[in-house]
Amino acid sequence: MPVWEAAAVVLGICYLLLAVREHIWCWYAAFASTAIYLFLFWDVKLLMESALQVYYLAMAVYGWWQWQHGDSSDGELRISRWPPRVHFYAIGAILLISAGSGQLLREYSSAALPFLDSFTTWGAVLTTWMVAKKVLENWLYWLVIDSVSIYLYVDRELYLTAGLFAAYILIAVFGFRAWLKHFRSQSA
Length: 188
Known about the structure:
By secondary structure, the protein is an all-alpha fold. Helices cover 80% and strands 0% of the residues.
């Protein structure tokens, strides 16, 4: 498994670095990394994280299509922002759904850390959709999700993956700055 975990980590870093640059090849790297993690997470009983990988596979295709075809007359998908009210509802929904699925996992499965697993999963579901739609604040959501994920992966002895998520935190800071700069230039 360590070789597969290392491959998934390398592909995951490629995905995020390419996403920072808004390069469409990020979605290919995401798809490959996700396919590997689907099996790795199942093996260590992170059931929600494993299920999340199925969603990521679909989102890699959707994100590629969104970035390829855009939403404007020139075919470019532009970076957008959400108003505070939308963030309030989004965060509330993540917390509520996480509490519900965490409780279900605790009662009816052998899932490890069911509430944290649920939180990182449902947070990532929304945030991945934000990346596909190029919502600027996705990077801020990732800072929180990735920080919690580090604890989750260390607990399951997925040390390379925990390291990947530590790198994701640093890359997310640069991603936010790069996208903010591009957002301001496209708005000017």
